[in-house]
Amino acid sequence: MINLKGIVAKQGGFTLKVDSLSLSRGELVAVLGNNGSGKSTFLSVLSGLKPFRGKYILDGREFGSLPAIERHRLISLLPQQSSLNMPFDVQYVVLTGRYPYTDGRGYSSKDMECTEETLRRLDIYHLRHRLFNELSGGERQRVLLARVINRDSPVMLLDEPLSGVDLRHQHEIIDLLKELSSDKTILLVVHDISLAVREFKRFLFFVKGTLRYDLYRENLDEERLSEVFQVRLRFIKNDESLFVYSEGKNREAL
Amino acid sequence: MKKAMYSLILLLILMVVLATLKGAVSIDLFHMSNTERDILLFVRLPRVMLSGLVGSALALSGLLFQYVMKNPLADSFTTGVSASSAMGAVVAILLGLGFLIPLFALAGGITGLVIVYKISSVRGRVQPITMLLAGIVLSTFSSATISFMKFLSDDAVSSIIFWLMGGFQDASVKKVLALLVVVMLSFLLVRRHYLGLDILSFDDTTALSSGVEVDRLRKEAFFLAALLTAFSVGYAGIIGFVGLIVPHVIRLMRFVKASELVPLSILGGAVFMIFNDLLSRTLLSEGQELPVGIITSSIGGLFFLYLLIKRKRELYYFD
Fold this sequence. Notes:
The structure holds two protein chains of two kinds. Chain A is of the alpha/beta class. Chain A is 30% helix and 30% strand. Chain A is built from eight helices and twelve strands. Chain A has helices at 39-46, 68-74, 90-95, 109-121, 137-149, 167-180, 193-199, 222-229; strands spanning 2-11, 14-23, 27-33, 53-58, 61-62, 75-78, 155-159, 185-189, 202-207, 210-216, 232-238, 241-248. In chain A, the strands form three sheets. Chain A has a six-stranded mixed sheet with strand order 6-7-8-3-9-10, sandwiched between helices. In chain A, helix 4 packs across helix 5. The termini of chain A are far apart. Chain B contains 14 helices and two strands, in the order H-H-H-H-E-E-H-H-H-H-H-H-H-H-H-H. Chain B has helices spanning 2-21, 34-69, 81-94, 101-120, 128-152, 157-165, 173-191, 194-199, 204-209, 214-236, 242-252, 258-282, 292-310, 312-315, and strands at residues 121-122, 125-126. Chain B is an all-alpha fold. Chain B has a single domain, classed as ABC transporter involved in vitamin B12 uptake, BtuC, CATH 1.10.3470. The interface between A and B is medium-sized, with 30 and 29 residues.
């Protein structure tokens, strides 16, 4: 689905580098790294919001040669932060995710049906007539995620979709993403390493703007993870599950 | 939406009929003398049409400025386009080229717009806050220039002052037709972008990743808004508050999508302005007229104050 070769994107003094990466349909990939390591920039480049050099093949075609509308039908992005300064209700916010399928003047009845289904899927159907800006942070996050899912694009890029969401809904969202990823490529930025290691199979680790490691769960180890996050990390194996905890930065010295 | 639309259309028709028949001379539609018929067809009707169209143009331009700047208080004044249009018009008065006022206003408005646009865009992207600041600077500068021109020319002062207060005394069929074309064209262009305008209310990253060509849409809306303003100022002088009041009232009636706001603002602007002009013609006795800008500003200002105090929280959401 996505093939990258020698991608370089510069922004001010920051440089994002991805030497080589290939992602296929049916994959749910966690993107990890410290603050400022380039995770969000990476998603911006993939969604076409930032200029880059290098080779980017999307769905078998050169990214630059795809018409803008086609790109947005193939890729949807959940930005890390969003704001809205009109009193739109939840249903309309989710509906606007269907924009790339419209003529710019109105939404079709199919768009309406998809929206209703998405609202139910994300357990926000009961909120549909509430104003978006009157919701709690976690509810807003779920609405924005629904907006992205409503696009039903083959590639979904989610920048911290779980932040501010309560545990119950975190798990519901993860289950939903697993289900959706059977025929999609989903990348999500997560900060909770413990959760990521338990729930996902493939991991991209960014360090200082560079894609440092591309690992499957079985190849994870304490050394490499500690290097990426610059804290001492320990693994605890318990039957089949893996737990990760941090010993903090200074423990190593003690 | 349908209900509001039909009510406004009905109200508009009612207002047009009322405003055409009432005035310094009240006309009985069924017992007209020739003079009265001439007044009706060649004086009243163009005037009512022009006031309606200027109301629509100002309301639509205000609404567009609000979308472009993501600011509920934006309109042709805060961008400085009104003031720079007026400056152009005053230059025309000063040069004794009264018949070229609309053209000069257009030139002034577009010049002001380009200046504000150049200052506020960074690498082709309009920065809303900078644009607002540049607009304030432009307004102040234009007002100062107008004052200076008034100071320079004693004999033109009264005509400048009168023109600045705004009004529809010089309505003509030509003006009506020209403005009709501008308003219709703007409406048809804006209609193609209803959904995009709604998505502009999100942050830029969300809008861009939704597939909206944010910068292009902003530029288009911005230029249409300036065009509408320049024509209004050129034909009727500076008339305040319509671009702020009308879209706000429509929003407060819980119409928040562009597909509702745009047509309702166009209709509402027309109704509001025809009503104001009718008041300006009939409040004083013996055919004396109040400048319409005074009425819109006082009705509008009071209403706006009421909204700010009573319904502050519902006006808009800001993060």
